[in-house]
Design goal:
Blueprint lengths: L5 H12 L3 E6 L2 E6 L4 H7 L24 E4 L6 E2 L10 E3 L3 H16 L15 H9 L24 E3 L9 H8 L6 E3 L6 E3 L16 H5 L5 E3 L10
Parallel strand pairs: 1-5
Antiparallel strand pairs: 1-2, 3-4, 3-5, 6-9, 7-8
Bound molecules: iron/sulfur cluster (SF4) (2 copies) and FE2/S2 (inorganic) cluster.
Amino acid sequence: MNWQNPEFVTRLFFCYRFNMLCTIIIEGKELRVKSHANLLWAALDNGFFIPNLCSIKDKLRPYASCRLCFVEIAGRPEPVTACTEKAQDGMVIQVHTPRIERLRHTAFDLLLSNHRLDCAHCVKNHNCELQRIARLEHLKLRGRRFNKIALNLRVDSSHPLITFDRNKCVLCGKCVWVCQKEGTAVLDFAYRGIKTTVSTFAEMPLTETACNSCMACVEVCPVGAIYTSSVLPGIPAN
Ligand code: SF4
Ligand code: SF4
Ligand code: FES
């Protein structure tokens, strides 16, 4: 991006002002995307995988908490999170560089350091976003760089349809967002720092809250933290 070039600056202005398409280059491939589109979703929608856990397409202000979506943009001194960037004409983006891979690896290991890893007995086994990212990015689910933090939080199975196991939560915030969007706002972040968790008010069991069983949280949870309880034999949990 050449900010000294008047032609470039004029083009950028018109792209932004009139919501035009712009050209970006990801991993050497040119893409035409909406100017100022979210960079992560512009890449994903065009078949480029950038690992992500906390981004929601419709959410205007990203949480940017998982730190998996780092990319390098030519001309920027430091890697940036793709979910917080907007596509701009002439952007040249790298998704796999040694620096990015180190950052991504660290973020992934940190996420797993307080995740109760028990794939063989997990409802999300083979349909889990952590497993998918590990597979596509050649990362280990059983990394040993950080000590495991055993949370031992109570599993809420009070609700007839929903089980909530916070020991598997990766704090992506998707359930909080949909719950608030649905208008019930039963789920929210609680506590701070290493103790941060998703919780109902005062950790009340789901059945004692205003939960209306819309199941939106179950649909968005990328891991085995909120899932459909197997209520009937033969019907698999989500
Ligand atoms: S949430 Fe995914 S990574 Fe975690 S135990 Fe379940 S299947 Fe394994
Ligand atoms: S319960 Fe699931 S959707 Fe909610 S924050 Fe945790 S991992 Fe994300
Ligand atoms: S998707 Fe960008 S930080 Fe999580």
